[in-house]
Amino acid sequence: MPAIWLTYALFTDQLGANPIEAITRDSGTWALRFLLLTLTLTPIRWLTGFNQIIRFRRMAGLFVFFYAVTHMLLYLWLDQFFDWTEILKDIIKRPFITIGFISMLLLLPLVITSTNKMMKRLGGQRWKQLHKLTYVVAALSCLHFLMLVKADITEPVIYIVILSLLFAVRIYRQIFKTVALART
């Protein structure tokens, strides 16, 4: 739905004075939103016992990748016109661009290994270890957004708080499991 809305808004001149900046920013924001949603599904399962929700995690992760690739391609195409020299200069000059590119590169092994076949090939434990990169990607993405914003940091801070809560839930659960195992 966000992609449909952004496309419609672009063609009906509803994105303001700088539509390229708006659509690039919004595609990145949706990538981050879907990333946080993806990370929220497991704690929801833990808290509610509703195991079926996990079926949506891969799909949500693919939405993350779709919006992240869209975000990056819009930057490469409409902002930099695929001028690789300028892109490299931009990556070096602006740290938030560097962080965004690192995030995108870290998403690639997650997408490549998201299939059942790759999960089996890697083995459950190695697959889980690799997919913990999702939290690194989320932290870098939040930092990317925070560094990008020039004035009102409210929205990136909200995402940072959500990510911090998701980290806290996982840490709490791990501590709880460790204590429970020590008692048995």
Short description:
The chain is mainly α. It contains nine helices and no strands.
Task: Give descriptors for this structure.
single chain; 184 residues; mainly alpha; 83% helix; 0% strand
Description:
- With 184 residues, the protein is mainly alpha-helical.
- Helices cover 83% and strands 0% of the residues.
- The protein has 9 helices and no strands.
- Helix 1 (2-11) packs antiparallel against helix 2 (19-48), helix 3 (57-79) crosses helix 5 (95-112) and helix 5 (95-112) runs antiparallel to helix 8 (133-148).
- The protein is elongated, with a radius of gyration of 18 Å.
What topology does this entry show?
Blueprint: H1 2-11, H2 19-48, H3 57-79, H4 84-93, H5 95-112, H6 116-122, H7 124-131, H8 133-148, H9 154-183
Helix pairs in contact: 1-2, 2-3, 2-8, 2-9, 3-5, 4-5, 5-8, 6-7, 8-9
